[in-house]
Specification:
The structure is a homodimer of 524-residue chains.
Chain A lengths: L7 E3 L2 E3 L5 E6 L4 E7 L3 H18 L4 H17 L1 H12 L3 H24 L6 E3 L13 E7 L3 E4 L13 H9 L3 E4 L5 H18 L6 E4 L5 H8 L5 E5 L2 H13 L6 E4 L6 E3 L1 H20 L11 E5 L2 H13 L8 H16 L4 E2 L15 E6 H6 L11 E7 L2 H9 L4 E7 L4 H11 L3 E6 L38 E7 L20 E3 L2 E3 L4
Parallel strand pairs in A: 5-20, 7-8, 7-10, 8-9, 10-11, 12-13, 12-17, 13-16, 15-16, 17-18
Antiparallel strand pairs in A: 1-2, 1-9, 3-4, 5-6, 6-19, 14-15, 20-21
Helix pairs in contact in A: 2-4, 2-6, 3-4, 3-6, 4-5, 7-8, 9-10, 13-14
């Protein structure tokens, strides 16, 4: 068993910063547990200096070494055993089943990025050979590949304490690309983060990696995060959280003397569209499926379906109400989320154009909210922007349209979203129109299913137009996430001995390369 | 012959806006030529509305149609014949030879992007097939590809009136990806831009493309550009120009309610490093090569070598002075650039730590500046940031180092640059150290050559860390530029009939796709 000390971890050293203290909170019994001290400018300075120095070695390590490091991190996470699940469950109330699954996903991600680093193909190597006798001027030899960019700041998310936090996807992809990482730990699960720092510390020692590749700065309040993003050594930011938090970091990063990219994965209402005939035919099954998606993780997913758009259906309404009300209440992650959800439910309940279909009590101090469905007309929905705001929790809004045209109008008025779902087996013409429109609005269009449950694979796209994401071209899930933390460098007329392995004539890594416009694994 | 009317072109219509008028200027004889009226908010509104509407058709055109459209634009540019060269030469003094070459490059770019659109592989299609019986949850079918993002604003550059202006690389890549383009014409070559609008107008008619895909808004002053970037319909910006101009647009774009990417290719001093032994062995040939690169295009290239970093060498210094002084003076593009260069030369001349090695006269009103080389010590250079500022014109600074360590220090202190060149045949250990350092500082490292002359090919990288570029991961030259104007969209569990062709089971486009992690052209 590892003792939770409340310290931060900077480049191989455990330190106790001098900042304000804060405590880990148990949502089950509402008791405080471990005490932590907040990092400040001094710790940022130490962590960034160590990261810059480590970068000079780490960036040049071969893919096998980096891959083995990432696999070892996964092994060491597993080696934390039940303590990790127990500590995290006590800090998040996510439950052992969910956390076991999320641990698997987190280790799976690390191993996928390990494979990617070992294979070495992610650098998109490209070679155009010289034509010395070309007229009017000779063509030079040009070769291009992706290279790491430098220290990356990662902000852990409260709702994915494993998969999108200390050693989650952002950290894994930044490390895989050859960058050091400085994590600003989420104050809602600091003990969990501390355990992860132990895991990566062991991997760093075992694999003989420069210690500066990783630091974990614990802290409460916004200053630590904003100061980190302002630090000139930081070259990119990975963030998962609220639209307000993400936009704050975007604005800070854009105002730096050297602006840097912020890859923020933010809010989303994930609309679900059901064609009129399809609703008629499948009212009960879609209501049941939707209810499961709304309640999953107590609605604390960025892909939680916040609105369902269709025509009126009593069967659908009745089934949805019943399914939601009969689903046992889940726990919320922390008192801040509980307070925010309580305020949202009160405001929705008091809204004259909204009807709470399965109204239930929810005390301000309770950590277990009702699974709620509200109803409004499309006309009202279109007239009031506040109805499109994300509510973080097990809440959905049934937007009742008069006809297909009104459904299209709702779709046209959507802001950027991570996902949109379409159920249209009996409404294929509407389905076609919705698909054509929705792929301009979202990162992932889902047919006949529900948005929660984000598969980790190369074809996944987790990132949509603003405000779903800050940089809609990128994904934060799947191996495609690695390119966020790398940039292309070209080498002109360069002798083989000075070229990175991926660009050498004989192709020692055996990777696919674009040679004179054609993909090949052959050497030059 | 096409009559130059001074009008702007909005979605197929020639219009005369009500804004301030300005005149086309002839650098050869300093006479005014054509008169133009400036566009304002009304014209922006018309152009963006037409672009949004055209996008709904254009985005769904197949690659062959888009490719044929781009090829036809190239044909129509060539069909403008000598008038294009004459008009542009009279507006820019770039000369027929250079402009003939640049026209070839511009049409070549358009045809490369045409091929790319026809081939259809640029969308990076990826498919992960379903595993319905996977435990604990089924794996859904996921497919991902790049899709266009919407109307793109393009700012023409003064120094490349063909290749980086109205129908240059930014416009070609945005159109190829399926986006409408609104060009803010550069006021230094408005008649040239007008001719280009005629060319694309003919291509739009011949290929039956929605007219809203292209507008050219002429105008003087900054408001037109900033208002265009602020317009909510605009989804991305392409810009080539000064650091100040680029940063202004970046700041505006970042402050929008919906921030958008600005792909700005800005300033660069393109350092050239020569190892001590290599300088001894090749002083004359490197001085000659450098002089040619400095004088090319009267130094008005973003890749012009602004500093040369080496040890002291009298032979090198004497030869460089001689070559620069014997090279006939070239013309500058416009009076603004002439005034700015005059101010820079005066300031450099008055700098106590700088020596103008081949001092020559340059009157304030002259359009033909001297080819100048200044000298300073590395110690002085490192102590004074202003010496690292780009001077737009045929000017270079010889930074004399005491030893290799000081050369490395200069390299370490560099900001982001588009290129760095290394001559180190006799200094391979220094060459290795420089390569390792410089690929963190620049987009393209060049061995044994000079930075001017940017080859257009897939392995080209034209874009470096800030302030060379706003988004260092992207390139503005080469077919890789297309991804700037597209983003990934994933489709989950979607029937073949609703999928884009690139993702359909049978692979009707015959493109390479990543299917379950392996590149293949096979169908599913």
């Amino acid at each position: 068993m590892i003792e939770i000390t409340g310290q931060s971890y900077i480049a191989g050293n455990w330190i106790t910063p001098a900042g304000d203290t804060f405590e880990s909170f148990n949502p089950y019994n509402k008791e405080s547990m471990y005490s932590f001290a907040s990092c400040g400018p001094n710790e940022i300075e130490q962590a960034t200096r160590a990261a810059e120095s480590a970068f000079q070695t780490y960036r040049n390590l071969d893919g096998k070494t980096i891959g083995s490091f990432l696999s070892t991190i996964a092994d060491e996470i597993e080696a934390l055993g039940d303590q990790l699940l127990e500590v995290c469950d006590s800090e998040t109330a996510l439950g052992r089943v969910r956390l076991t699954g999320e641990r698997g996903r987190t280790c799976g991600q690390l191993r996928s990025f390990a494979e990617l680093a070992i294979k070495g193909e992610w650098v998109q190597a490209s070679i155009d050979t010289a034509i010395p006798d070309r007229a009017p001027v000779p063509k030079p030899d040009l070769r291009r590949m992706m290279k790491p960019i430098g220290p990356v700041a990662v902000f852990g998310a409260s709702n994915f304490p494993f998969a999108f936090s200390t050693l989650g996807g952002d950290t894994a992809s930044a490390l895989a690309a050859g960058n050091p990482v400085i994590v600003k730990g989420h104050p809602a699960h600091p003990a969990t983060s501390e355990l992860f720092a132990h895991a990566i510390n062991r991997a760093i020692e075992k694999c003989d990696i420069p210690t500066g590749v990783f630091s974990l700065l614990q802290g409460l309040g916004n200053d630590l995060g904003t100061d980190l993003v302002k630090h000139p050594a930081v070259q990119a930011v990975g963030f998962t959280g609220s639209e307000r938090g993400g936009r704050t970091l975007m604005d800070i990063a854009a105002a730096r003397p050297q602006p840097i990219p912020v890859y923020a994965e933010m809010g989303s209402i994930n609309p679900l569209f059901v064609g009129p005939n399809t609703l008629q035919a499948q009212a009960e099954s879609i209501a049941t499926g939707l209810s499961g998606s709304v309640c999953m993780g107590t609605g604390q997913f960025c892909t939680s379906p916040g609105i369902v758009v269709s025509v009126a259906s009593e069967v659908f309404e009745t089934t949805l109400k019943a399914r939601l009300s009969e689903t046992p209440r889940g726990y919320l992650l922390n008192p801040q989320i509980a307070a925010s959800l309580q305020a949202s439910l009160e405001s929705l309940n008091n809204h004259p154009q909204l009807e709470w279909l399965n109204r239930a009590d929810f005390e301000a101090s309770s950590m277990t909210p009702p699974n709620a469905v509200f109803k409004t007309s499309a006309r009202n929905f279109l007239a009031d922007e506040t109805m499109s705001e994300e509510v973080f929790g097990p809440v959905t809004l049934y937007v009742v349209c008069e006809d297909e045209a009104q459904m299209m109008q709702v779709a046209e008025n959507l802001k950027g979203n991570l996902t949109a779902s379409v159920h249209a087996d009996e409404d294929m013409e509407l389905g076609r129109k919705l698909f054509d429109l929705l792929d301009q609005k979202v990162g992932r269009v889902i047919y006949n299913s529900y948005p929660t449950g984000v598969e980790v694979c190369p074809s996944q796209q987790h990132g949509g137009p603003y405000p779903a994401s800050s940089i809609s071209t990128s994904t934060s899930v799947g191996v495609g996430a690695i390119v966020r933390f790398a940039r292309f460098v070209a080498y002109q007329g360069t002798p083989d001995s000075l070229l990175p392995d991926a660009l050498k004539n004989e192709n020692p890594l055996g990777v696919y390369r674009l040679v004179n416009g054609e993909l090949t694994r052959e050497g030059i």
